[in-house]
Write a structure and sequence with these properties.
Blueprint (H helix, E strand, L loop, with lengths): L2 H25 L6 H28 L6 H27 L2 H8 L2 H13 L5 H17 L5 H28 L5 H23 L4 H6 L1 H24 L3 H8 L1 H14 L5 H28 L3
Amino acid sequence: MSKKLFSILCAISCSLIWGSAFVAQDLGMDYNGPFTFTFGRLFLGFLTLLPFFLIFEYKKTKNIVFNYKNSFYLLIIGFLLSTGNVLQQFALLYTDVANTAVFTIFYVVLVPFVSYKFFSKDIHRSVWLSVVICMLGGILLTEFNNIEVRFGDSIAVFNALFWAFHIVFISKFLKEFDYPITMACIQCLYGSMFALIPAILSENISLTNMILDGKEMVYAGVLSSGVAFLLQIYGQQNLSPAPVAIIFSLEGVFASIFGWIILNQYLNEIKILGITLILIAVIFSQLAPIYDKKKYGRV
């Protein structure tokens, strides 16, 4: 299996787990606030990854001296991860699973701009068409039936900015620090600490309440935070930020499907068309550069 194919499969698997986790995130705030839930899931993600770090990468990294630049990158990535998750939880308080997931994937639009503007990363022209198709699909997946939903959607749109920077910063940092398990482990630990501080200040943290939402927190923590964020990093090892962001947008499709199956949040014909367009965008973003390279001898 080629490295690129492995990364694509990791990115798709990551999207599937993220999409299914939106249901757990929605159901996991019966007894806990957004900050507490985010702290719990990210700390569980850290605990999930810790044994793998100790077994596979501890010996490789124990002699590495973290300079200011590396430490800064890890801190920023942890902050972006924490803020993205917190805003996602707040959005779920005011709108449904499908809308939160779909507006979150607007990072697809932002990632190419962030990559080009901040890191001068060249973007293949097929990405822009894929972004437009993906955006159109996302819009078709949403519904604006009341003010409360629009408020939740606004939070999710703002949240997309943090996920865009998160994706770009991981791709950038991987070029200098190619230790996926270590990176995933540290970002979950830092992210949980960033969420813990406001949770202590503004919410009633209780072990009893965390246990009451335990099943949802474990699912979001072990799978969506631990396993999926590791898959995200493996997915970004051999793929550029913009194309991989389009693959990650499948989380909106999976979230809509799981929301329909588990929460009875109905998918009508328009939403199914939106799902189809996102799938087309994902496929096109991966195949067009390959065809271009074969035909013209360039990427």
